[in-house]
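Cross-posted from the bioinformatics board.
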Amino acid sequence: MKIASFNINGIKARIEALTNWLAGADVDVVVLQEIKSVDEGFPREHFSDLGWNVETHGQKGFNGVAILSRLPLEDVSRGLPGDDSDEQARYIEATVVGDQAVRLAGLYLPNGNPVPGPKYDYKLAWMERLRHRAAELLALEMPVVMLGDYNVIPEARDAAKPEKWVDDALFLPQSRAALRAIQWQGWTDAIRIRDPWAQRGPFTFWDYQAGAWNRDDGIRIDHLLLSPQAADLMVETGIDREARAGEKPSDHVPVWVRLAA
DNA sequence: ATGGTCGAGGTTCGA
C-alpha cells in the first residue's frame, strides 16, 4: 500500500497537476491539504470517474483537507478532537483496507505566523490537541500513518537557510518541542530515516517568492509519522521533488511511504 | 543586500 501526502494549494488551480501526478505516482491513497474549497466545490466526480474514492473536509476560501483512495475507506471522521468551537477544516481520519487495515490521519497544522499573537497561540493549542489524539492512535496498536503539512521545521538541517527561520512560527523552539513531544511518543519520521545522518535536507516546500525553487532554498515541513506497527511494514519512502518543476506547481511536493500492507 | 508569488474571492488576506 503506497500512501502519500500532498499540499496542493487550491484544488481548482491544481486539478490538472494533481491528475497528472496521480496518473504516474502509483499511489493507493493520498491525503490532500489546502484544498481551499467547500465540500460541494470539490471536483468529486472528476476523481471518482478516474476510480478514486473521495472524502473531503472543506471550508470556504482557506484550509480544507481530503482523501483520495483506490482502496475502500472506512470509519471516516472529520475534525481534530479536543475543541468543539474550532471551525477550521484541518484534519480527517479514515481506515484504508488493503491486505491489512491502516488508519490514516491527514492533517494541515496551523502556520502560526505572525508571532506572537492569536495565530501562534492557536497553533500551539492545536498541537497539544494533536498530541492527545496521537496517543489515542498509538493505543490502537495497529498500523497508523499520521501525515500531512505539519508547518514545523524539525531541525536546522531541515532548512536550506535555517537563519532565515529563527523568528518564524515554523521553526521557533516551542513549535519544534511540540512536534518532538508527539514524535517521542513512539512515532517514526519516515522521510528522515531514509538518510538519518544527512547534514542538509531533503526538502518538501519551496516558496513561490524570490526564486526559492531555483536556488533550492527549501524546507522540510511535510511529514509522515508511523506508529510502530506501521513502521514494521515500511518498505520504501520518498519525495516526488520533480513535481515542483512541473507546470503550475504547488509550492509543496508529495511525500510518500509504501507499506507491506 | 535586495526583491518579492501565488490562490481564492471579491478589491484583501493567508501563506
